[in-house]
Amino acid sequence: MKKNWKAIGVGVGIVGFVAAMNALTPKQGDSMTAMSHGPAGPSPIALAPPQAVPAEHQAGVTAFQSVCAECHGQWGQGTDHGPPLVHDYYKPSHHADYAFHQALRRGVRAHHWRFGNMPPQPKVTMQQANDIVGFVRWWQRENGIL
């Protein structure tokens, strides 16, 4: 029987990746700080509310404040439950829009912050996710995050 070495190599690579991810996934009782691999994450920042939010971002503000504000702050400034999203760390070149969509859909394992895992937000529709990301990107630009 002829072996398909390319397929075997891909399979071995996938098994190795899954094993590495499982090793990094927090288990019951693990310390989130001990599991993080990098800085503790950005701390809450002082951030004044905008003077006005453009009409095209009103739905995003509403969705953000109802879904995200409890942890990320009313205006994305962060709290003791979640990092600020108006921060260089979350600029588009470091966390693309896709990362925000995935975070909403799947949640995020704690890896760059001390706040614990972010749970998925299954009630957020694709339109709401687009609105939230649009608002966050607008608000980042307003605050000099490019």
Automatic annotation (TrEMBL):
Which controlled-vocabulary keywords does the entry list? Answer: Heme, Iron, Metal-binding
Q: Where is the Cytochrome c domain?
A: 55-140
**Molecular function (Gene Ontology), one example:** metal ion binding
- InterPro entries found in the cross-reference section: Cyt_c-like_dom, Cyt_c-like_dom_sf
**Pfam families linked to this entry:** Cytochrom_C
This chain's protein is named: Putative cytochrome c class I
Q: What is the lineage of its organism?
A: Bacteria, Pseudomonadati, Pseudomonadota, Magnetococcia, Magnetococcales
